[in-house]
Amino acid sequence: MTVGTLDREAMKACRERIDNLTKPIYSLAQLEVIAERLAGIYKEPKPHDLRYGVILFCADHVGPTSDMAHSLQRVTRFHEGRTATQGGASKLKAPVYVVDVGLGCDTSDLSTIATMPVVKEPRSGEKALSKQECQEAIAIGVSWAKRLHEEGIEAVALGHIGEGAYLQALLVTAKVTGVAVDTLLAAYHKKLEIDNDSTYRDTSVMNETADTIDDIVRLAGADIAALVGFVLGAAACRMAIVFDNAITGAAVVAATAIEPNVIEYVFPSAAYDDAVHQEQMKYLQMKPYLYYDVSIDEGLGATMGLSILDASMHMLNDMKTFVEANVAAAEDGPGNERQENPDNYKKGKA
């Protein structure tokens, strides 16, 4: 897969329009930056009417907090269409896709859930994926990126369902960013007021060596590996990708380590009071746009992040320029020589 760079000419033309909208120059901050980046992604100075989508990859991990019956309840709510994520997605007319790549429960009777298990049973001791399993999980993610692209989806929110994935997200983040695993574990345990972390240290995946990015992704488990594949595939298809918490963030961090150009296509949604997520933001040099103080994952934060992309598109397309509105811009303001006045525009056309 080849992930192309952004179209700088489209971005330049988009920025020129943004600077000429009837507002103080640079006053809409990140909405302006988002619109400019979307122009570069789609090679279109004025992208509009984007089609949005949401995808969740699901897997359970055996560990001290695992409750696979809970995973079945969560997936069933998606099957029945009664989740907060689906409610938010419906406002954007965004279809929601749920892909089971390794849940400990049987989802074959849930017709709206795509059952594609890479790991047939949750692993005792959190063993790393085999090379073949890792490749299969990544390939599943890539295939879903291509499918959504073929269906016309242009911007997609990432999500996850399953128990016990946080440890894998922590490990992937530490391995890629270089932050000590013990540092992240200590912060996590302090937050949860856990005194004895031996159960976390006993998992065999903690003792796995990971000298290459391929080894690191094998440590991630089927869900994060599939998310990595999806991010790579979506970026190669020039789709905008919105992520939220530490688990989807781990996939983005790993994908950017594999293909640096991926960074141009990803957008952070929500901020979390979580050391792993915060280290991911430092590594990616990003700041999330929103803060909800929610604990629900299931792609809710990323889905709400799509609304920020949508707001930037409304800014770009629904606001008028000074020329279109026949309004004079201040010639001695900060937008001087950037903002075109109606009279000057008419003289230039004369």
Automatic annotation (TrEMBL):
Annotated transmembrane regions: none
EC main group: transferase
Gene Ontology molecular function: any one: nicotinate-nucleotide-dimethylbenzimidazole phosphoribosyltransferase activity
Basic and acidic residues composition-biased segments: 335-350
Database matches in InterPro entries: Nict_dMeBzImd_PRibTrfase, Nict_dMeBzImd_PRibTrfase_N, Nict_dMeBzImd_PRibTrfase_sf
Entry keyword set: Cobalamin biosynthesis, Glycosyltransferase, Transferase
Pathway assigned in UniProt: Nucleoside biosynthesis; alpha-ribazole biosynthesis; alpha-ribazole from 5,6-dimethylbenzimidazole: step 1/2
SUPFAM superfamilies linked to this entry: Nicotinate mononucleotide:5,6-dimethylbenzimidazole phosphoribosyltransferase (CobT) (SSF52733)
Region (Disordered): 331-350
Homology family: Belongs to the CobT family.
Protein name: Nicotinate-nucleotide--dimethylbenzimidazole phosphoribosyltransferase
Taxonomic source organism: Veillonella montpellierensis DNF00314
